[in-house]
Amino acid sequence: MKLICIGRNYAAHIEELANERPEEPVVFIKPDSSVLPKEQDFYIPEFSNEIHYEVEVLVKIKKVGKHIEKRFAHTYYDEIGLGIDFTARDLQSKLKEKGLPWEKAKGFDGAAVVGKWVSKEKFKNTNDLKFSLLKNGEEVQMGNTSLMLWKIDELVSYVSTYFTLKKGDIIFTGTPAGVGKIQANDYLSGILEEQEMFSVKIK
Ligand code: ZN
Q1: Are 13 and 175 a contacting pair, CB within 8 Å?
Q2: In the chain, what are the domains?
Q3: What is the pTM of this model?
Q4: CA of 6 to the centre of ligand 1 (A)
């Protein structure tokens, strides 16, 4: 199982990190070992002093596909979720400066929170889903999939031109504005269309 993550998919988040608006989706991979086991707390790793949360809508792939056309993309997934792409921002900034790959900053153990899954049939329109992240009960990130630069079907199609998608693979569709630092004893919870999808304690 692989986690395929999209960077810079919301204009306001690109601005807050002073990044360039990409001409194509920014894609990176997290290994399956980065998934935080269910019910487990997140431990801030020793190699970082700046772990950021990034709440993201997730899409679970249900069958093998390569070179998927956009018009058929919806047949390759039927579950939507919510999760966190934890990022060691200090480490990522150093790697970016040097033009090096981001994996250490994005793919470390526990760096992927995967919440529960909901059938896409439960939603009227997957291109109009609101979601948010609460930190200690206060909303810190809020987004809507209608604001994605590349929508879910475009992403499924795009990534499948590079990587064969397999059953169980998960696409992290990018984070909206409002990313920020976590510290020990924080409590994060993710809401998708009024429903709590995950919660995680920071240690
Ligand atoms: Zn992200």
Answers
A1: yes
A2: 3-201 (3.90.850.10)
A3: 0.96
A4: 6
